[in-house]
């Protein structure tokens, strides 16, 4: 990572912190503190255990994607890669840390880059699918969709459609063949290795898709992961004696976790701010929305960053050498 990248990451993080502090300041720190004082530590500890359990499930799920095309890493190394990836997600936008895992597995285990990237793409796809199912269930269970919730759900549905279209494009060998055969694009030297690399990713994704058992099991794992995320928010709400708001807070948490973590989430502040704003839009009192969000996210973010730093230090030799230009040509 260059000095310029480090400066960008620091600035990105400061912006996120400033946005979060501004929102909580407008709500009022004293009001938030009154609610947080009643926190049930025992219940909150259970919520933390559930959160850490989702990482183990994510590691197991990621290994399942490797099985149709390559020998998967062991569970311990998969966990290290995921923790490290989450740390970079908290520093860079668009969940770039997820794709870092593909480079680490190549450098550490010799797994080809196209295989690693294919597993990450499928992972994102199943996250979106499971997220949509869990979110739909919560919206139906809530019984009363206000107008704003409908707009939020519609926005997410449109984003999902766009992502599915991108997946289908990557899946299409004809698309990559067109890039390499096109007279204009063919003159651009770097398009040839990129198109060949794209064909390799497409081929690997197809092999994973043909493994029906893998697809069904990973969908089940994805549903459990996102279901546990909603359960964690439910337990946090109970620990703060705010049971009546758990449904709306769970919806806000899921939306913020998916949308903000994929766009603007420096040090987790995107999810924090997004969860508060979404909850307020869904008629949750601002002080309660902020208290639940802070209790739910801050310590969890602290856990993730701490585990991410330790994992990144352990994987540092494999992270230093991220020769992308060399890797995209090595697709055989």
What are the salient characteristics of this protein?
0% strand, 82% helix, mainly alpha, 332 residues, 16 helices
Written account of the structure:
This protein has 332 residues and is mainly α. Helices cover 82% and strands 0% of the residues. Helix 5 packs antiparallel against helix 6, helix 12 packs across helix 13 and helix 13 runs antiparallel to helix 14. The radius of gyration is 21 Å and the shape is globular. The C terminus is likely disordered.
Brief overview, please?
By secondary structure, this protein is mostly helical. Helices cover 82% and strands 0% of the residues. The chain has one domain (3-329).
The major beta sheet can be summarized as: none
Gyration radius (Cα, Å) is 21 Å
Q: Structural class, from helix and strand content?
A: mainly alpha
Beta content: under 5%
Number of strands: 0
How far the N terminus sits from the C terminus, by CA atoms, comes to: 28 Å
Instruction: Encode the helix/strand succession as letters.
Output: HHHHHHHHHHHHHHHH
Whole-number count of domains: 1
Mean pLDDT rating: 76
Percent range for helical residues?
Answer: over 70%
Shape: globular
Q: How many distinct helices?
A: 16
Uncertain stretches of 5 or more adjacent residues? 144-148, 324-332
């Amino acid at each position: 990572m260059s000095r310029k990248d480090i400066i960008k990451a620091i600035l990105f993080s400061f912006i996120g912190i400033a946005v979060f502090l501004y929102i909580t300041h407008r709500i009022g720190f004293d009001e938030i503190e009154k609610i947080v004082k009643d926190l049930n530590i025992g219940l909150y500890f259970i919520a933390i255990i559930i959160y850490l359990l989702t990482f183990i499930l994510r590691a197991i799920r990621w290994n399942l994607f490797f099985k149709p095309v390559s020998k998967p890493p062991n569970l311990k190394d998969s966990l290290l890669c995921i923790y490290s990836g989450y740390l970079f997600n908290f520093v860079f936008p668009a969940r770039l840390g997820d794709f870092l895992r593909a480079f680490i597995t190549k450098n550490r285990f010799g797994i080809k880059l196209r295989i690693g990237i294919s597993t990450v793409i499928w992972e994102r796809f199943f996250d979106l699918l499971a997220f949509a199912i869990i979110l739909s269930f919560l919206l139906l269970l809530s019984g009363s969709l206000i107008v704003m919730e409908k707009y939020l759900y519609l926005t997410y549905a449109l984003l999902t459609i766009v992502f599915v279209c991108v997946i289908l494009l990557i899946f299409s060998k004809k698309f990559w063949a067109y890039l390499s055969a096109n007279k204009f694009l063919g003159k651009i030297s770097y398009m040839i290795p990129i198109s060949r690399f794209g064909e390799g990713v497409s081929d690997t994704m197809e092999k994973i898709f043909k493994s029906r058992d893998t697809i069904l099991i990973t969908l089940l794992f994805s549903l459990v992961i996102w279901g546990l995320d909603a359960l964690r928010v439910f337990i946090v709400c109970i620990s703060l004696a705010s049971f009546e708001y758990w449904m709306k807070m769970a919806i806000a948490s899921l939306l913020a976790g998916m949308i903000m973590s994929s766009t603007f989430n420096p040090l987790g502040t995107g999810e924090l701010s997004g969860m508060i704003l979404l909850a307020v839009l869904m008629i949750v009192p601002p002080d309660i929305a902020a208290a639940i969000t802070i209790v739910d996210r801050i310590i969890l973010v602290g856990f993730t960053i701490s585990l991410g730093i330790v994992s990144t230090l352990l994987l540092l030799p494999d992270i230093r050498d991220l020769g992308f230009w060399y890797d995209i040509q090595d697709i055989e």
